[in-house]
Specification:
The structure holds 2 protein chains of 2 kinds.
Chain A: H1 3-24, H2 54-57, E1 81-82, E2 85-86, H3 91-103, E3 109-111, H4 115-118, H5 142-148, E4 158-161, H6 167-181, E5 189-192, H7 197-203, H8 210-227, E6 231-232, E7 234-237, H9 239-243, H10 248-268, H11 273-276, E8 280-286, H12 290-311, H13 317-320, E9 324-328, H14 340-354, E10 359-361, H15 374-389, H16 404-427, H17 430-435, H18 438-456, H19 484-498, H20 501-516, H21 522-530, H22 535-546
Parallel strand pairs in A: 1-10, 2-3, 3-4, 4-5, 5-6, 7-8, 8-9, 9-10
Chain B: E1 7-12, H1 20-31, E2 35-38, H2 45-54, E3 59-64, H3 69-82, E4 89-94, H4 101-106, E5 111-113, H5 119-133
Parallel strand pairs in B: 1-2, 1-3, 3-4, 4-5
Helix pairs in contact in B: 2-3
Classes of the chains: A alpha/beta, B alpha/beta.
């Protein structure tokens, strides 16, 4: 059947069958929109995906443009890594949680650090009051990381560390702990988040201004390319931008624009694209709108492959593969009727898996209330295991491909994200767009519209603005001990008494000298860490050279 | 109630960078006619109290999602007292377990708004406080 004939038939159907039915049963809403406020049609047909060609647009998994997945047999070969983000209190407490998660069948570790660690302060700094050990584990020196991984063989697990501004310091500590266990750095598998650009627009744990931050990141690219072939030196993250309230299209656009900026910086520092691009990894959000989210992951893969091939002239196919971690959307969790969150997370898990993720964190039902309890964490992990082993969706590759709706959404998201990226290019790139406040304003506008629609009841949140009940406050929430800061201060004092002060000063002097010059900063940071210089001491040394970022308030 | 004359400082204390809620409430209250100042993230309790006095606000809304509220919120109240500005009304919001709310109320936080709170509810609170002090 030709396109013209199909078009005529569709028009006939709209005018007769649909119209007649709609006189008795009109559509419930004047307009249907996705979670990202994109209009959704009543019906999708081949007419909505008529442009393009299967081989060039979708192709085969494991081959350019990777729309259908980065690996040829996807989950039939290997399931995604089930990686629950965890960490709280002291290294001792978190070490217990990791051992518990591994014993439940988790296949990789994901380390949550507390805010002082993420912003490069020792727990003893007065600015850290109330924050030590709260949203993650407190790490002040190599001593803490040794305890954190005690009894966990680092040659057997892969470890993801959510650390950005001081990423090089935590990478250095990880290498040092592994070497003490007898594992060489070349064998280590894992990821440092190391994505500063999204910290300026969404997450907030920046330390230094953009220019020296980009240099630190490029230094880790070069170091890992040479010494750690199995390590991802960055996880370019749209997750937090989405949490801050942007749309699916903006999530793809801003994340890939950040990726472009890192590639430009590495090339400027003299690296060949294929020397580092295979080690770049990504991190996306799995939000509520199942079909839109699946399309988002597919669009992101195709767009990144094209950018790498056409813009950066990459030749190695691995440079064109967008490998990504996913986390279910924390911002969709409700404090009301928190058990409903189990269902939300299950739908989001499906989106991530149908979208071809390489690893996944599922949120716990109680995270709108507190840090998750052990029982909630187990349900979250079991949700992944149910999807993996019972739902059947992992049995074939990219099962939603060819759905008229999903393909049309994939095209739409790719096209709109590419238009955003062109606009950001026009501003000079992501650093300039951030400095101009453009990205922040775009996110803020989307977040505001979304929440307004919730308040108006135009967007239904079950248990919040519809189907509400009176309920008693929840019990059994996890509490973090308030005396943690004192415990950490005691540890810092013991470390300082034990270490060779002359050696500490010498290694910190070397960090400062290299920071002022152009050599790679990673090796001197490793030396400082091994001498038990604290995280705060190393970051303060860099603060003296690089200065601190002053954010602009945009709202 | 002349909303334009009601000045509100929305502040992020501590090291937490999650400010979607703080920005939303700032913009929503501004759209309803209040005069709103937002501090941006990573403010110390001293900074916030001083800014509140300098800006001559009637309300300070503190937002925190990291769990440090029990330590940090009461400090803002204390500091305002030290600065002779005990009349400034402090309220809070964020991921705050129900168990912690009585403690915060005892320490001078006039209201605590948890996830799901609407702008209407917040406006109702502002109106009630203004009527009491009228």
């Amino acid at each position: 059947m030709g396109q013209d004939q199909l078009k005529a038939q569709q028009e006939r159907w709209e005018e007769t069958t649909l119209k007649k039915f709609a006189t008795k049963t009109p559509e419930r809403l004047p307009k249907y929109v996705s979670a990202s406020s994109e209009e959704v049609a009543t019906l999708y047909t081949p007419l909505d995906c008529e442009e393009g060609d299967y081989l060039s647009d979708e192709g085969f998994p494991g081959e350019y443009p990777f729309t259908r997945g980065v690996y040829p047999n996807m989950y039939r070969g290997r399931l995604w890594t089930m990686r629950q983000y965890a960490g709280f209190g002291t290294a001792e407490q978190s070490n217990q949680r990791y051992k518990y998660l591994l014993s439940c069948g988790q296949t990789g570790l994901s380390i949550a650090f507390d805010l002082p660690t993420q912003i490069g302060y020792d727990s003893s700094n007065s600015i850290c009051e109330g924050e030590v050990g709260k949203v993650g584990v407190a790490i002040d020196s190599l001593y803490d990381l040794e305890i954190l991984f005690d009894g966990i063989p680092l040659n057997q697990v892969s470890t993801s560390m959510t650390i950005n501004a001081p990423a090089a310091v935590l990478l250095a500590m990880y290498i040092a702990v592994a070497e003490k266990q007898g594992t060489s750095r070349v064998e280590l598998r894992g990821t440092i988040q190391n994505d500063i650009l999204k910290e300026y627009v969404a997450r907030g744990t920046y330390i230094f201004p953009p220019k020296p931050s980009m240099r630190l990141i490029v230094d880790t690219f070069a170091f890992c390319a040479k010494e750690m072939p199995k390590w991802n030196p960055i996880s370019i993250s749209g997750y937090h931008i989405r949490e801050a309230g942007c749309t699916a299209i903006q999530e793809v656009a801003f994340t890939l624009a950040d990726g472009i900026e890192y590639c430009k910086a590495a090339q400027k520092a003299g690296m060949e694209i294929d020397a580092f691009a295979p080690q770049l990894s990504f991190f996306f959000n799995a939000h509520n709108d199942l079909l839109e989210e699946v399309a988002k992951f597919r669009a992101a893969r195709r767009l990144w492959a094209k950018i790498m091939k056409e813009r950066f002239c990459a030749r190695d196919p691995r440079s064109m593969m967008l490998r990504f971690h996913t986390q279910t959307a924390g911002c969709t969790l409700t404090a009301q009727q928190p058990d409903n969150n189990i269902v939300r997370v299950a739908i989001q898990t499906l989106a991530a898996v149908l979208g071809g993720t390489q690893s996944l964190h599922t949120n716990s039902r109680d995270e709108a209330l507190a840090l998750p309890s052990q029982e909630s964490v187990q349900i979250a992990l079991r949700t992944q295991q149910l999807v993996a082993y019972e739902s059947g969706v992992a049995n074939t590759v990219d099962p939603l491909a060819g759905s008229y709706c999903v393909e049309a959404l994939t095209d739409r998201i790719e096209e709109a994200a590419a238009a955003y990226i062109a606009k950001i290019d026009g501003m000079g790139g992501m650093v300039e767009a951030i400095e101009a406040g453009y990205v922040q304003r775009e996110i803020q506008a989307s977040a505001y519209e979304y929440q307004k629609a919730v308040e108006m009841g135009e967007r239904v949140i079950v248990g919040v603005n519809k189907f509400t009940v009176k309920e008693a406050p929840p019990s059994g929430l996890l509490k973090v001990d308030l005396g943690l800061r004192e415990v950490q201060i005691g540890k810092i004092e013991r470390v300082k008494a034990m270490r060779d002060a002359v050696q500490v000063q010498a290694t910190l002097g070397r960090v400062e000298a290299v920071a002022r010059g152009e050599e790679n900063l990673t090796p001197p940071i490793i030396e400082a860490v091994k001498a038990y210089a604290t995280l705060g001491e190393i970051c303060d040394t860099l603060r003296r050279v690089f200065g601190e970022y002053q954010s602009q308030v945009i709202f | 109630m002349d909303k334009q004359k009601i000045r509100i400082l929305i502040a992020k204390v501590g090291l937490d960078g999650h400010d979607r809620g703080a920005k939303y409430i700032s913009q929503a209250l501004r759209d309803r006619g209040y005069e709103v100042i937002y501090t941006g993230i990573r403010q110390t309790t001293d900074d916030v109290a001083k800014a509140a006095v300098q800006e001559d606000v009637k309300f300070v809304g503190l937002s925190l999602l990291s769990g440090a509220h029990n330590q940090l919120f009461p400090k803002v109240v204390e500091k305002l007292r030290e600065l002779g500005a005990a009349d400034i009304v402090v309220f809070g919001g964020g991921v705050i377990p129900a168990d912690d709310i009585p403690f915060l109320l005892e320490h001078g936080i006039r209201a605590v708004f948890t996830p799901g709170t609407t702008t209407d509810q917040m406006e109702e609170f502002i109106r009630t406080v203004m009527e009491e002090s009228a």
